[in-house]
Amino acid sequence: MQPIGHLPAQEWLTFPETVQVMEAIMAGGKPARFVGGCVRDAILGLPISDIDISTPETPEKVMELLEQAGIRAEPIGLAHGSILAIQPSKTFDITTLRSDVETFGRHARVNYHDNWLDDAARRDFTMNAIYADPDGSLYDPMGGIEDLKAGRVRFIGDAYERIREDCLRILRFFRFQAYYGRMPPSASDLQACEQEAPYLRGLSTERVWSELKRTLLSVDPAPVMKDMHQHSILSAVFTHAPREDAVFRHLPNLIKLEDSHKAPKSTIRRLACLIGEDVEAAQSIREDLPLSTHELSHLIHLIKLLRETPDFGRTYEIYRILYFHGPEIYYDYVLLTAALDRNNLLEEHLAYWRNWTSPTLPIRGQDLLDNGLASGPKVGILLKEVTDWWLEESCKPTRDQCLQWLGTRNNL
């Protein structure tokens, strides 16, 4: 391969940790080059997080060279040629040049070599097969730079072959389209994704959720979700796929509302928008996606509220949601009701959220006992009653006023 240009000045190229790792790997006399996301994003002028490196050195030799340089090395995928170099403030994923001899989904039997073209050919997208020397010289054997600058996400070689090597690449294709695509996906790539989509069911839910979550966190996932719906990707991921109106109308509405209100992006809010009131979809979500306890709780609260449709014309309902569910749930719910065309008073309802100060009910069960009520189930019943009244009164009554209200109704 011959260099075809040069990266703009990059601070990460000259970090002491970066220089030390590259010098250690090349101490055996073979080259090492940066590849993948760090090169791709550097060309676009985006922040760099992960740094991936390729080298003809075998994984065992890479381990040896790093240890000789006093750099901690961990074999994170020794069978596939991946070593993690661990520096005090940064890690580097180092992979030996390889080609896949036989693939088994994500797993493969590989052949190590020193051919950079063969290594590029086994990668997923052209924009991920751009290499850079330590001095920033660029190598682009698959035409990735042109695709990257045009906003064209394109499989390397035959899309069917790339997907059959690892069908997670279907979800990666749509994630990359959400972040880097400015041109519509090619019909042939979409056709390959659709035809191979049934194999997504064989992936671990953790891998699926990792990709889907990142896609939902893109600036505007709505166009990609439409493509995923039309080409049977969502129906392969979800037991009960989102309904058409959720994908084509509600999610775009939500994205516009988030943008106009500068709302922080939220995977769960956007996922709730796709599920809406679909009871079957909500019930199956635990099997489809390994949500964390917090994510699942947040999602269930939102879906229940969407089903219950509280009367926002009553101040009590507003305060009840804020008090029992918290301001985060309330905020998401208000945006969702507007996205689902149910809320014409969005600004008024957001004003309650802005002014909410998380008040504490000024009365406790002990107060009732101190006023002569016998211990038992009635204590909890009366506390619920007084809480409802207190919320009706916009959380303003004091302890004495709460006791007085209870006294007039329950002879305390």
Written description of the protein model:
It is a single chain. With 412 residues, this protein is an alpha+beta fold. It folds into three domains: 1-150, Beta Polymerase, domain 2, CATH 3.30.460.10; 238-358; 365-410, no CATH class. It is 53% helix and 11% strand. It has helices at residues 16-26, 37-44, 59-68, 116-121, 144-150, 159-165, 168-180, 187-196, 205-216, 222-230, 234-237, 244-260, 267-275, 279-288, 293-308, 315-325, 327-339, 346-355, 365-370, 377-392, 399-410; strands at 5-6, 33-35, 51-55, 72-77, 82-87, 90-96, 98-104, 107-112, 131-132, 137-139. The strands form two sheets. An eight-stranded mixed sheet has the order 1-10-9-2-3-6-5-4. A two-stranded antiparallel ribbon has the order 7-8. Helix 6 (159-165) packs parallel to helix 8.
Structure, briefly:
By secondary structure, the chain is of the alpha+beta class. It is 53% helix and 11% strand. It folds into 3 domains: 1-150, Beta Polymerase, domain 2; 238-358; 365-410, no CATH class.
**What count of structural domains?**
3
What overall geometry do the principal axes of the alpha carbons give?
elongated
Number of strands: 10
Query: C-alpha Rg, in Å?
Result: 28 Å
Structural class, from helix and strand content?
alpha+beta
Q: How is the biggest beta sheet arranged? A: 8 strands, mixed
CATH class of the largest domain: Alpha Beta
Stretches with pLDDT under 50, minimum 5 residues: none
**Major beta sheet, strand line-up:** 1-10-9-2-3-6-5-4
Helix coverage percent: 40-55%
CATH topology-level fold name of the largest domain: Beta Polymerase, domain 2
Distance between the termini: 89 Å
